[in-house]
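Help wanted!
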Amino acid sequence: MTLISVENLTIRYGANTVLRGVDLTVEASEIVTVVGPNGSGKTSLLKAIIGAIRPAAGKITRDHGLRIGYVPQRLHIDPTLPITVERFMRLLDRVDRSACAAALETAGVPDLLKRQMSELSGGQFQRVLLARALIGNPDILLLDEATQGLDQQGSASFYLQIEAVRRESGCAVLMISHELHVVMSASDRVICLNGHVCCEGSPAVVASAPEYRALFGTGTGGALALYRHEHDHDHNQDYASNAGNTEAAE
Amino acid sequence: MLDDFMTRATLAGIGVAIAAAPLGCFVVWRRMAYFGDATAHAAILGVALSLAFEMSIFLGAMVVALIMAVTVTLLSGRGYAMDTILGVLAHASLAFGLVAVSFLSGIRIDLMAYLFGDILAVSRMDLAVIWGGATLVVALIAWRWSSLLAATLNEELAYSGGLNPRSEQLVLTLSLAITVAVAIKVVGVLLIAAMLIIPAAAARGLARTPETMAFAAAAFGAFSAVAGLRGAYVFDTPAGPSIVCVAAMCFAIFGVFGWRKRSAG
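Answered by r_m:
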């Protein structure tokens, strides 16, 4: 069953085209990961799917009544806004305390109900965001670099948690990640994005694709390549030269 | 009971405090303090126009405050920083308002009454307008509370839950315009922002959830209105500023001290 289908999606910020002609589908219970350099339009793609950005062209179809659990890249809570974990969990869903506690348990952070959001560590905070996304029994989880700010161990265990959630609840996952080594092991399908879809397929197929190697280099399976990739992306010069300008949009 | 001017003044002050409390919380959380100021300053232009065209001051102030708020929303995101836009519009509209008032030579206006309020002169009709407006604002915010909170915390999160943060922003803007319009009589355009921000800021140190902060802000606001009026009566001081002084003392005691204790513990 197709949960989300994106057809020929184009997104522009002013004169700047961030995404052009993107096609994408997410089926039930699969983990799809979007990789790509800064400014490649990953976050814009996710924002368009949740309806926060109006596409310049193309169509986004969500399955009727699709429940989305969204975990944002960063969530800044103003220090003047007092809010407990329990209250935050109820932000969008009317649920009782036991449901909150159960979702926190699933996300791997039980016993935080009464704490203030501002008192949490980075790892706890991200897991509470995950718990909140899980509380409405979503059909699909959307994660936008959800492990930003976590150390390697923290993000590895975070992704293990995601896999466990998928196994237990059967929800699909569409995530953006910079951590290619994690992505390669945890995903069913990888989409390499750089203003358009460069290549897609199973992790093994994508890792050996010339387009992917052009972006992320070879040899390390992508784990270290991230830090030395260059914009030598010559099969579409427009996007490569645009990439630097679109950083603000990301 | 309403024959006594002190009773009417107290009721007017409490009405404004109750409307301003939940709205003030959002103004503080969203860092819109200057936005409140700008809307309030625009209201003086509304007062001048109302007097010129002989229509209700409440209506004129509200319409200009709304136009101001919409203009700010439209102008934002065009290259100027938000505080620059607000700075230009707030002071420009205040200046134009003051100039416009000076043209109204036929009518004698006590400008001070609009800048600092004239709570002791609140009539039964004013009281009805204030409580009507306050009820409307509280009802609007209570109705949209959860959505407003979600949109305040994170716009994308709100979108993912099927909400539209832009329409929530409109609810806040509308409420702000109504509150400013009804509060002119009580504290005047220069001190309205104080009634929004100070009780909410004082409540922050005591609260653990958004809801308790809003209730605590309402309590501080109502207390400030009652105690400020009493103080104005006893010490023969201007009523509006006295109310704000009490609110500021609440902030000094509960806001600064309460929050410091929290962060130390």
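OP: Thanks! One thing I noticed: Chain A touches chain B through 24 residues (CB under 8 Å).
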